[in-house]
Amino acid sequence: MLSKTNFKSSVKCSMPQKLSSHLSRREDWQRSRSLAERLQTTLDVGEFFALYASHLNTRIPIKQIHFESESLNHRVLIQDGPTATEHAVLVYADEQLLGQVTYTFLQPLSFLQKLRLKKVHAHLVFPLRNLLAFQHMSQLASRDPLTQLYNRTIIEPRLTKLIKSAHQQQHTVMMVDLDNFKHVNDREGHEVGDEILQEIASLISEEVDPDHFVIRFGGDEFLLIMPHTELRLTHDIFKRMQQRLCNHSLISKYGITLSAGSVRLQPYLSVEQVLNQVDDNMYIAKHAGGARHIFDSLDAQVNLPNDQRL
């Protein structure tokens, strides 16, 4: 009887443990499934990784997630603190390398936490592949075929977003027009003109920050959207671009210079008002003789050699 009692006692103790383990695995599976479904609901990069990071942080306290690929570099900081360990994982979908995710943790991971990370990470793969495919198609649709700069399709969403935060941070916009470019097209033909446009697009892109947007606005006009940039700093950017053109053998040969206008974004301005203001400033610079930058209602003229003033 004693043995039988002990056996029954052991059965009663073990059943809740097995049931608890089963329920825990089922809850993990349901949470992971829910994660995959939620990740499929957004094609915004920031929102996508914020959802993923938030979910993971409820399972394992995490400091940061960093995803890097050929076309995307995105970092999500969840909380501050000293780094205890990093875990880098290459992400594959059907043998296609999507990129690398680096997880940064505040504490060393236990064996159980490593298993949890592996399970959660597995549900990232296919939503991430869909996101990257969408981003790739969006990039193709938003690029100018001649210069490979952004085209006008990104102006409305980018400016709208920055205008909303303009009361907290300084953002600026610059409109750039090429002086004397029309004469090149008329005399040398569009083939030479296209080559010059490509060279200038490349030079402008090299003189702005990685988070700035250089847009071919149309013809020989370019729009620069510059987040987190004070208005006074736009003149330094303009001077560098102007000097690069003066030092370029092909561009300087035709006496091409820049006329530009800049404005600081304000929370009470619409996108249309911003574009009108920056366009007005640019035309003031152009009609004043070119090779000028109008910003904050001030006329700033770059000192160019006499043979560059036409």
TrEMBL record:
GO MF annotation list: diguanylate cyclase activity
Domain of life of the organism encoding this protein: Bacteria
EC number(s) per entry: 2.7.7.65
InterPro entries: Diguanylate_Cyclase, GGDEF_dom, Nucleotide_cyclase, Rev_trsase/Diguanyl_cyclase
SMART domains in alphabetical order: GGDEF
GGDEF domain residues: 169-298
Record-level GO BP terms: cell adhesion involved in single-species biofilm formation; negative regulation of bacterial-type flagellum-dependent cell motility
GO CC term, one of those recorded: plasma membrane
Cofactors that this protein relies on: Mg(2+)
A Pfam family recorded for this sequence: GGDEF
Catalyzed reactions per annotation: 2 GTP = 3',3'-c-di-GMP + 2 diphosphate
NCBIfam families reported for this sequence: GGDEF
Protein name, per record: diguanylate cyclase
Organism for this UniProt entry: Idiomarina fontislapidosi
Lineage of source species: Bacteria, Pseudomonadati, Pseudomonadota, Gammaproteobacteria, Alteromonadales
